[in-house]
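This part of the workshop introduces the protein records we will be handling. Getting from the letters to the tokens is the skill we practise here. An example says more than a description, so a record of this kind follows:
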Amino acid sequence: MRRGLAILAAGSATRAGVDKVLADLGGQPVLAWSIAAGQAAQCFDDIVVVAPKEKVAAFAKVAGGRARVVAGGDTRTASSWAALDALANADLIAIHDAARPFAPPSLYARCIDVAASDGSAVAGLPLADTVRRADEAGAATEELSREGLWSAQTPQTFRRDLLEQARAAAGDRTFSDDAAAVAAAGIAPKMVLGERRNLKITTLEDLAYARELVAKGLVGFPAMSVR
């Protein structure tokens, strides 16, 4: 069974104010962290980076031969389908947001193992905070039960046939993540316990926090282990 990793990096960086996946993080671009973690997991036969069309060359320079770089689409969902085509020989496909640089190699491996047996594996965390609904003025109107609620992360890993079913059912629709696309096709994805440190860099504040974690030695650049 061949296993592929798609690192999605084709999205807009407007909220961060900079190209977040090319931003420096401990002396390496953010994207390099995600590529290195995928390599260090030692469970993928192929790694592709899905880049904006106009930045394929710049991203290929970061990848440095460790991953293939292909052009993505105008939406996150379109970029996932581009990854599906690029990984044409993969039976299992893990899809990861490049803006999550601290996903540990063990999480990639765990998702691959679960997806191999159950068909899917979506990293996430059960909600621990109280959840309230509020109106447009910010007034709390309802407290929601958090039982059974998860905050989804990536990687999200699926058997190829499930992603193909999702693509066929999706048409021109777009989704917030791949689990949503699969669920819309009537397939219930399997949640897998993720990691607290697997944060997503969306804003400049997120980037500053990630840099602080690196500077304090709380996270380190992934390295290949000896097996």
